[in-house]
From TrEMBL:
The keyword Electron transport applies. Transmembrane segments: none annotated. Residues 70-173 form the Cytochrome c domain. Keywords: Electron transport, Heme, Iron, Metal-binding, Transport. This is Cytochrome c domain-containing protein. Gene3D superfamilies: Cytochrome c-like domain (1.10.760.10). It comes from Phyllobacterium phragmitis. Residues 178-262 are annotated as: Disordered. Residues 182-205, 212-262 have a biased composition (Low complexity). PROSITE patterns: CYTC (PS51007).
Length: 262
């Protein structure tokens, strides 16, 4: 009895295995997807540009240029983020960072009562004062600009926003520092000036001399008895008379009868 029941379980297991294998083989036949002889499109790798494929980083805009259009009112709103660590009023207390009143052109690491990091003290030995350029570089990336600083601010990469903030910090003073002059733009070449051979520009309005015609040196007269050009009236000879052209009789002298053809 027990052996008959065991045989039933074995037969049921084998039947289940047979069904599973049959379904698997049948599905392979039904859903078979052979590889096409010709691909629909070819996938090509992008070519690396010459020079190692590295693109030149965009040139940073000088802070003097950014400050020409900066808005201190907008900078005041940006400064609200800084108030968690800094105060901006005159005689304000030090917090996590020093008070920022009169920060522009203030000696670096010099605010009384604040303990500066070793990195900031070392930076002060070379940088000396907080110029507009130093403020711009420090606020862009503090830990990159001053190695070892304890400032936890990650930096502001937005040029206009950073310029607005610096413009506002400039106003935190009884005598705000003057704005730096914008860098002078390169002047374009004069209109009508064409570059001559070798890169030198030819002054506008100067006529080009024909090839082959020599210009006499300064102070030297042109050679005498120079043959006139074709179709050009000969120059009068000494005494006011003009030399006759070829095939033409000379004009009679004053008081002398004209010559007749004999």
């Amino acid at each position: 009895m027990e052996s008959s029941q065991s045989n039933k379980f074995i037969m049921a297991f084998l039947a289940a295995v047979f069904v599973v294998m049959s379904v698997s083989l049948l599905s392979d036949v039904i859903f078979d997807s052979p590889k096409p002889e010709k691909e629909g499109y070819a996938i090509q790798a992008l070519e690396q540009p010459a020079g190692g494929g590295e693109q030149e980083a965009p040139k940073a805009v000088p802070i003097a240029t950014l400050l020409q259009t900066a808005d201190p009112k907008k900078g005041e709103q940006v400064f609200k983020r800084c108030q968690a660590c800094h105060t901006g009023e005159k005689g304000g207390p030090n917090k996590v960072g020093p008070d920022l009143w009169d920060i522009v052109n203030r000696p670096i690491a010099s605010h009384p009562g604040f303990s500066y990091s070793a990195g900031m003290k070392e930076f002060a030995q070379t940088a000396k004062t907080w110029t507009f350029e130093h403020l711009n570089g420090f606020l862009t990336s503090p830990k990159t600009y001053v190695k070892g600083t304890a400032m936890g601010f990650a930096g502001d990469k937005n040029d206009s926003e950073r310029a607005d903030l610096i413009a506002y910090l400039r106003t935190l003073s009884d005598n705000p520092a003057p704005l730096p002059a914008a860098p002078a733009a390169a002047e374009p070449p004069a209109e009508g000036a064409a570059p001559a051979e070798g890169g030198a520009a030819q002054p506008a309005g100067e006529a080009e001399k024909p090839a082959g015609e020599a210009t006499p040196p300064a102070g030297e007269k042109p050679a005498e008895n120079t043959a006139p050009a074709e179709g050009q009236q000969p120059a009068p000879a000494e005494g006011g008379q003009t030399a006759p052209a070829q095939g033409q009789q000379p004009a009679p002298a004053q008081g002398e009868p004209p010559a007749t053809n004999q």
